[in-house]
Amino acid sequence: MIAVSVAAVIGLGRMAAEARTLYEEDATTAQASADLVAATLTVHESALYELATDDPGTVADLSAEMDDELLPDVYVAIRELRERENRPEIADIEHGLQEYLAVRRAFLNTNGAAPTAAAKSDLADKTDELLEGVADAAKGINAQVREEEAVRQAELEATYTATQRLMATGVAGVLALGIAVTLALSRDLLPRIRQYAAFAGSVSAGQPTTPVATRGHDELTVLGTALNDMIQQRERSDAAQRQQTEFVETLQVVRSEDEAHLLIQRHLQRSVAASAVLVFKRNNSANRLEIATGVPRGSELVSRLAGLEPNACVALRLGRTHQEGGSREPLLSCQICGDRDGYSTCEPLLVSGQVIGSVLVSHTEPLDPAGRSKIRSTVSQASPMLANLRNLTLAEFRASNDALTSLPNKRATEDTLRAMVAQANRTQEPLSGVVLDLDHFKEINDRFGHAHGDEVLAAVGAAIRSSLRPEDFAGRFGGEEFLILFPNTDADEAVRCAERIRLAIAAIRVPGVDRYISASLGVAELREPTGTAVGLLRGADKAQYAAKNAGRNRVVLAETPEPANAAEAATAPEPATKPV
Q: Burial of 296 by CB count in 10 Å (0-12 exposed, 13-18 middle, 19+ buried)?
């Protein structure tokens, strides 16, 4: 209201200033018309005097004054008046002056002959008529200007007075209206402000809150909407934090890399809406990229994932986040997620600067900052745990496997033997065992050297692994001796499996070893419901001795059941000699 009053006063002041400016312009115009009147009268008077005198010197002086001063003064006055008001009477004045100048030139150009009295009288009458008309026109202009000036001045004064009254009335009305509006708004605004203040206090204290009720379309409504959005954002953030905390806590208790990979997949798929997640890992040799989680049936990725190298994944190659889809056209397109429908975000699994895998998230819409943050935080939290699990798995593998043949070592083989015997006794299913011993292996070491002997053992291990069924087991039992177990397999079938292994070993060719590789295999079956691991092993061992004694490079089946208990097995006689 104060601003309105100030604006009104300023407006009135400006109006008064403009009125004064207009008044000054009118006064200047009036002065210009008065100057024109005076100049024309002076010309009129001097012209008549010029015609009335007979003294040539006086005529010359008057003529010079007319040309140098009086007529130029008239034209100056005409120009100044025309610049302010181009009235049609000004053209009449100029026309009258032109006629007078023509008459004057005729008077002055008489070639030295003095005009007669009658001629001078006629010339004086003509000059008086012309210049009197010019002076009358100038007087008329001056009178019109004065009259118009007076009318405008009166109108301005009346307008100024009316405006003052109107402004005063308007200010008073606005003041009254402002007071009324303020009172009305205070009754509506104060309760809402108190409600918002209480809401903000609860939010800052971390107490549970319900959204504020918003109404209207004013700034407080905008504020209430912003407060509600803030609460919703905080709830989403809290929910995301709870999910992330649950993920981290669950990650601490997983037992294997595979379980951790599935946990990452499930967590990201529930955290990023409408997404599909794949986890990739490098193999132990770091020369292949493998899928650690299942690929959806019918997915186009199946054909792309065959024989992938690590460099196929751009995120893994660059060691940073890689995104594709939409209008994004990266300089380096990924062989896995490039040229696909939708969007994809790939995050590398980094541990101490080394990339151990990557996480590919496919989504139908571009990710918002929260979605990208969820992926980054999940991957960064999971990477160290995956590295620990991988190291633990590798350590366990090395502890229970023979480094040369990549088969389980003797301790792991004995543990597996006991477990499979116990399982067979519980399920009453057949179990067959094979003891395999290489023929003349000492001769190979002595003749070709231990390095070539190690190559032979490695080749034998690979041949055994390639000949096994998925459910079978094989381990290195010591030196050049191996134990093979065939679950749910009777003796006859075990002989056929053993023969397949024997043939695979016989086909081995090792560079630098100029002789054939062969093995003797003894087969035994866990025949009694309460058979023991020691009994099964002893029966297969005896059959292997028999194969050695029969000429080697063959498979022999144990002929008689072994003792049913460990005590009898411990007292069973050993063969007199062990063939090599």
A: exposed
